Every structure is written in C-alpha cells, then in structure tokens.
Amino acid sequence: MSRIFITGSADGLGQMAARLLIDAGHEVVLHGRNEARAQAALKGAPGAQSAVQGDLSSIAETVALADEVNRLGRFDAVIHNAAVGYREPRRIATVDGLSHVFAVNTLAPYILTALIEKPRRLVYLSSALHQHGDGTLQDLTWEKRPWQGTQAYSDSKLHDALLAFAMARRWPQVLSTSLEPGWVATKMGGAEAPDDLEAAPKTQVWLAVSDEPAATVSGAYFYHMKPREPHPVVYDVSVQERLLDACERLSGVRLPD
Question: 80, 125, 142, 183: which has the fewest Cβ within 10 Å?
Fold first, then answer.
C-alpha cells in the first residue's frame, strides 16, 4: 500500500485517479481549493483518508497547504494534478498580482514540491499543448504580452514538464516524471474532446504506485503509459534552472537540495 496526495482532486482527472488508487487499496489524501471543494472531493472519492484545502492561486495558502500535508506524515507519491485551463478570456491577477494561470499551474507545483517532505515519487500533469509553450521563459506572468489564454496554458504545461525533469536531476533519490493525459471530456477539456476519458487517469496512477520497470524511472515523459518525447527544451538544464530561479524569486520559497 502506498500513500498518495493528489492536488485538485475534487473532480475531473484528479478525482478519477483517486478512485482508481482507493479501489486498489492505497491510502489517498485529496485536495480542494476551499472547504466546499474539499468536502466535494471526499464525497466523490469514498474511502479517501482525508481532504485538505488551499487556494493554489495564493502563495500564502499554498505554503499553508504544504504545512498541512506535512502534518499528515510522509507520502510515497505526490501527483501535481491541479490546473486551470486555457479558456480564461483575460489576464486575471491573483492576490499576489500574478497571472492566475501561472500561479496555479506553475508556481503552486513549485512551492508544494519545495515545501512538502520529499516523497518517493513526483508526478506532474502536463499536456500535449506544452509543445507550443514558450521555452524562452520571457514574461512568465504575462505583464507585458497581450493576453492569450491558450498560450498561457501551453506555457504553464511546459513549465510543469520542466519542473519534473529539473527535480529528476536535482533529487536523484526521487522518481520524478511528467505526462499528458490526452484531450478528454472533463470540465477543462470540454464536451468536444476526442480522447479516451477512461484511459486518461491511468498513467498518473501507474507512475505513482507501479513497481513495473517501465514506471520506476525518472526524468521521463509519458502518454497512456508509454514514453513520449517532450518539447526539446525540457532537457535544457539552463532553462530548468531559470524557471526554478524565477519561481523562487516570485514566491520567496527556496527549493531545498
């Protein structure tokens, strides 16, 4: 039995992954952005150990969430699933003055990675759209560029893959991977999404708990439990480090060695 923490598990792929893990006998802690969402997570995934709450668009709440997770003890795996999509029509500023998409999709996984006690495995959800992300890392928080919701989302999903590969290099004792679940008919994906919804959560579950040699790897990117080549910049150590430096500067949270 493994202990797994899943961000953004009140609905969608996070909740689907939680159900699969619970059904397989694993101990799962869920997450929602507020009390109502945390309770919805528990209702939707019977058998979960508990649910924690924290708004990932807020640096302070994300830091507090990490503290709450640590009080529950060490986890075998953390699945960084929470995200907001590409449909935001304008740049929405968070309480910290950052782009909402960047804060939730990029900065929050960085903060939680830095502050939650190191698990055995880290799993970061990316997207096929990461292939269109801006590898220059210019204007991360969209203060100068004209807002484009799809581009902001694509950038953030490239960041998630960069985080996964950076942690695989920085923390060799931790298995750190990233994946794309496919374009599926969740609330984020929309009803027109063509990919297999039932297959979508299986890869993150497999990477979090499987002892198969194909799953016990680090610094790799997957689609439907098969390796897939990510954007070439994901392998660039200098870009990884620039992203980590930017996240530290913006959050005030330092990544431990």
Answer: 183
Helix residue ranges, H only, the chain: 12-23, 35-44, 59-71, 100-102, 108-115, 149-170, 202-209, 237-251
Q: Decide if 188 contacts 232 (C-beta within 8 A).
A: no
What pLDDT score does 200 carry? Answer: 81
Tell me the C-alpha to C-alpha distance, in Å, between residue 253 and each of 4, 66, 112, 239, 249: 23, 12, 10, 19, 8
27-32/3-6 β-pairing:
parallel
What DSSP letter does each residue of 80-110 carry, written as one string? E-----S---S--B-TTSSBHHHIIIIIHHH
Q: d(Cα 9, Cα 17) in Å, to the nearest integer?
A: 8
- CB within 8 A of 119, min separation 6: which ones? 5, 74, 75, 76, 77, 78, 174
- Which residues of the chain are under the pLDDT cut of 50? 184-185, 194
The residue assigned the tokens 């794309």 is 180
Strand 226-227 and strand 220-223: pairing? antiparallel
Query: Can you give the pLDDT at residue 194?
Result: 47
Residue pLDDT, tens place only, 162-221: 999 999 999 999 999 999 996 644 555 555 654 656 788 999 999 999 999 999 999 999
Residues recognised as catalytic:
153, 157
- pLDDT of amino acid 185: 44
List of residues 6+ apart from 93 with CB closer than 8 A = 99, 100
β-strands 121-125, 175-180 pairing: parallel
